[in-house]
Amino acid sequence: AASMRLLGVRFPLALGGFTALASFIPYIGQVISGAVVILVALAHSGSVGDALIVAAVYVALVGVEGYVLMPIAMGRSL
Fold this sequence. Notes:
about 0% strand, elongated, single chain, about 80% helix
């Protein structure tokens, strides 16, 4: 949401909430929410560069969550 707010995209918290809810859908939830967020950024700014920045931030956050935070949390809980 912070990167979208910096780029001036409207409703970044609503898009973040949508992304959080869509991540509960196995396999395709993150893909669908990522596509929606990127398309909203592209439609709002009209700049492919801004959409690519949002895509890079999204992929980085999903990667950190999936490959760093979740293994740490699962390791501590087991």
